[in-house]
Design brief:
Number of helices of chain A: 16
Number of helices of chain B: 3
Shape of chain B: globular
Order of helices and strands of chain B: EEHEHEHEEEEE
Oligomer: heterodimer
Helix content of chain A: 25-40%
Distance between the termini of chain A: 38 Å
Shape of chain A: globular
């Protein structure tokens, strides 16, 4: 079946496959995407995957794909679905293997001109200080009970240990601690995989990036967020490492075995799910919360190390402030209007970012009148964006937007298209300092392997789902492999 | 002769494995997985004895053959990640449609160029044709 042939345009940036077009759909499948970006996904199965998601028991209103969509496991990356509590399903595939993969943005008081003379040194010291790459352990060695504390308390554990400030928690989704986490619902396999990895960046598309504020689109919001022209900022992008991967593996396995008992039949095993109020559903939610907390603790510790290195180079009084930390692989209990009635939903965001509008209690007090900051990392050599959430997102997408540029070439294709040394020189010619353990890892993440982030962000802005506040340009990239 | 090949996949890695028996197929899938992970040999890092040989026991029970393959590969990923090892062979004591037991055999490594998060069920089928079993497994990296 050629699923994209069922797409009906609703506007220049919204397409839909209505209920009834494909048997089994319970809600419409909506795609926030431009025609150009849509042409890119016709070669993968992401459209079909979103249609499959529309068949999940308990799904309400609509399922949505964002403009950075591409083929994933079960859900497409860039996919979003909400199921109604208490009986609607929870699907680990709707969260992803890297539970609470996310990004945080730190703001300095310095301009690019002030930082430039020390840029090479900063990049080298950050590379040295932050363990990255597959198989590399963190600097923190946790005892068993300490790991369990981290799983329950997340970033709050770190702040209590002196690895951060109270205001960091106010500027992190869920305050850096998702309630309901239960280490008893996490396997020993997951704990063993995660124990040595706290405070590590990982590999693949995870990175630490030093950036400068190149363009301000909304001066008023920028001021509230603490952004200014040519300001140097630092992005940290990583997740729950092997811990989260194992939690997902464990529960996909568990839920697959229970499908017949719940009389659920699925077009794709990676959509394995269970009713949210079933024992398996409750256990997964508790384990997912533990993994989410691990990831917040991870980013908090990395930020602590980054602050240390920054202070060493620029002086003790120079500080880095956290703008916000967003998750883009998570399921959350949230209240939203469904056909005009407020309902409690389980919102699955897989490669999609929460972008709550003004007035929501979940948005930090200092941003509540303006809307939640949204950080959209781009690719090396291109740009990243800071956006703000809007009322339109609340009305149309459960307060959600895209998460990044979205991949368009396989790692294999990227390696064929790009020479490692050539890429390094290209980045360096753009003035970007590169620190990476392997050229192969760099090439796999080359800008041409990704969609154009500007096109992606333009769609969500044109649709009214978020508003651009600033564009950031990379000046140093630090990654594992 | 290699009984696997690495295939391009948009975001991740796919391994096409073949074998004349279930044991051979499963071993080929694991070998392909570790080739994709590109282990860094211990000699480069010098923190473990070079080429230190290792063996890890496993015992897996699943509901069907496809799940058994995924569960076996995920167990190899778990042991590899927690012990810092790469496996190049499997000695099976048992391998039925739903149960497998035996030993992963390999060596200590310093790390991997590519971190494999998990073996997935994405598009996974075990097919038989002309006496040969084939499966293409997609790994999340």
């Amino acid at each position: 079946m050629r699923y994209h042939e069922f797409l009906e345009p609703r506007s220049p940036h919204l397409y839909e496959i209505p209920v009834g077009k494909i048997p089994g759909m319970l809600v419409p499948a909506r795609f926030y995407i431009s025609k150009e970006l849509l042409d890119e996904v016709k070669t993968d199965r992401s459209v079909e995957q979103l249609v499959n998601v529309s068949m999940l028991p308990g799904v309400v209103e609509q399922v949505i794909a964002m403009p950075d969509m591409h083929e994933g496991y079960g859900f497409p990356i860039g996919g979003l679905a909400a199921t109604e509590l208490p009986h609607g399903v929870i699907s680990p595939g709707g969260v992803g293997y890297d539970i609470n993969c996310g990004v945080r943005l730190l703001l300095s008081n310095l301009t690019w001109k002030q930082v430039e003379p020390q840029m090479e040194k900063l990049a080298t010291e950050l590379m040295r200080a932050i363990p990255s790459g597959a198989g590399r352990s963190g600097r923190l060695k946790l005892l068993k009970h300490e790991l369990e504390e981290v799983l329950v308390d997340g970033a709050t554990w770190c702040v209590a240990k002196g690895l951060g400030r109270a205001e960091d928690l106010e500027h992190t989704e869920e305050g850096g601690r998702m309630k309901g986490a239960d280490p008893g619902c996490v396997s020993d396999h997951a704990k063993n995989r995660g124990r040595g990895q706290l405070g590590t960046l990982g590999s693949g598309n995870h990175f630490l990036e030093v950036e400068r504020v190149e363009t301000l689109f909304d001066a008023e919001t920028a001021k509230v967020f603490g952004l200014f022209q040519d300001q140097v900022v630092i992005a940290i992008h990583c997740g729950s490492r092997g811990f989260g991967h194992q939690v997902c593996t464990d529960y996909v396995r568990t839920m697959l075995q229970k499908l017949p008992e719940y009389k659920i039949s699925l077009p794709d095993k990676e959509l394995a799910c269970a009713p949210a109020d079933s024992p398996e559903g409750q256990d997964y939610l508790a384990a997912m919360a533990a993994a989410a907390n691990f990831a917040w603790a991870n980013r908090q510790i990395i930020m602590h190390h980054v602050r240390d290195e920054w202070s060493r180079i620029f002086g003790g009084s120079e500080t880095l402030k956290l703008l916000y930390d967003v998750s883009h692989n998570i399921a959350k209990r949230e209240k939203h209007l469904v056909h005009g009635i407020e309902k409690e939903l389980l919102v699955h965001r897989k490669g999609a970012t929460r972008a709550f509008g003004p007035g929501r209690p979940e948005v930090p007090l200092d941003f509540r009148e303006i809307g939640q900051p949204v950080i959209i990392p781009g690719t090396m050599g291109t740009a990243s964006y800071v956006l703000r959430g809007t009322d339109e997102a609340m009305k149309h997408t459960f307060g959600t937007v895209c998460h990044g540029a979205g991949r368009r070439l396989s790692r294999h294709a990227a390696k064929l298209a790009v020479q490692g040394d050539q890429l390094r020189h290209q980045l360096e010619d753009q003035g970007i300092v590169v620190r990476c353990f392997s050229t192969s890892g760099l090439v796999e993440e080359a800008p041409l392997a990704y969609k154009d982030v500007e096109s992606v962000v333009n769609v969500v802005e044109a649709a009214g789902l978020s508003a651009k506040v600033a564009r950031l340009r990379p000046i140093a990239v630090i990654k594992g492999e | 002769m290699k009984k696997f090949e690495l295939l391009p996949h948009t975001a991740d890695v796919a391994v096409k494995a073949t074998g004349s028996s279930r044991e051979e197929l499963f071993s080929a899938a694991m070998q392909g997985m570790f080739e994709a992970a590109s282990p860094r040999s211990a000699a480069e890092g010098a923190s473990v004895p070079p080429s230190m040989k290792v063996e890890r026991k496993f015992l897996i029970s699943s509901s069907e053959e496809v799940s058994l393959l995924v569960d076996l590969l995920n167990e190899a990923i778990y042991l590899s990640a927690t012990h810092g090892e790469a496996y190049d062979d499997i000695e099976f004591a048992t391998c039925t449609l739903t149960n497998a037991a035996g030993v992963f055999k390999g060596r200590a490594v310093e790390g991997f160029a590519t971190e494999i998060k998990a073996a997935t069920y994405h598009d996974l089928k075990i097919e038989k044709s002309d006496g040969l079993l084939t499966a293409t497994i997609v790994f999340d990296v």
